Amino acid sequence: MSNIKRYALIFLLAAGFYAGEVFVFGLSEGRFTAHLMLAYIILLGLYLDFRYCFFAAVTSGIFKDSLLTSLSGINTLSFLSCAGLLFILRKYFYHPHSGFSRVWTVFLVLCFNELINFVFYSYLKDISFPEAFRYAIAPNIVLALFFYKPVKYVLEKCVLR
User: Fold this and answer.
1) How many C-alpha atoms does 131 have within 13 Å on its Cβ side?
2) Distance from CA of residue 72 to its chain's centroid?
3) What is the C-alpha to C-alpha distance for residues 141 and 54, in angstroms, rounded to an integer?
4) C-alpha to C-alpha distance for 49 and 44, rounded to whole angstroms
5) Residue range 69-85: average pLDDT?
6) Is 97 exposed, middle or buried (0-12, 13-18, 19+ CB in 10 A)?
7) Can you give the pLDDT at residue 159?
8) DSSP letters spanning 53-76
């Protein structure tokens, strides 16, 4: 597959996962975020070259920031930071044939993303960490880990075609 087609496919999949994330956000009445795009970025970083991961991080961040009114660019910055952390984890920690290593890497990147979002949003509002952890961070991480396997399944179907 040529690079242009691969970048177009990454762009279209980012748009699809964005639509899925908005759908899950709507179903939960604005309480939870599924982080489908972050799972997509993580899987691209684990299985493909990092230039595709960084392209997906920028594309997904722009998609997610398009509806955000409070902080412009926060999701692009957090996705790029997570891609950078993923680069370090893949180099020093991740083992390709270990399921535990894969889930642990996903968990660490999700926690890092939530921590970045908490730091930036705490500047806007007076938010205590225990309250944010209980009502936002922990449920979002659990929901993202729940949706990790279906996102992996969709990506494997696209790659095997």
Assistant:
1) 5
2) 17
3) 22
4) 8
5) 86
6) exposed
7) 62
8) HHHHHHHHHHHHHTT--SSTTHHH
CA angle, 91 then 155 then 110, to 5°:
50
- Other C-beta atoms closer than 10 Å to the C-beta of 42 total 31
Q: Is 98 helix (H, G, I), strand (E, B) or coil?
A: coil
Give pLDDT, residue 151. 80
DSSP codes joined into one string, the chain: --HHHHHHHHHHHHHHHHHHHHHHHHHTTTS----HHHHHHHHHHHHS-HHHHHHHHHHHHHHHHTT--SSTTHHHHHHHHHHHHHHHHHHHT--TT-HHHHHHHHHHHHHHHHHHHHHHHHHHS---HHHHIIIIIHHHHHHHHHHHHHHHHHHHHHHH-
pLDDT tens column, 87-124: 999 988 888 887 788 888 989 999 899 889 888 877 77
Q: Please list, in sequence order, all residues whose beta carbon lies within 8 angstroms of the beta carbon of residue 38, skipping any fewer than 6 positions away.
A: 60, 79, 82, 109, 110, 113, 144
Mean per-residue pLDDT, 131-138: 79
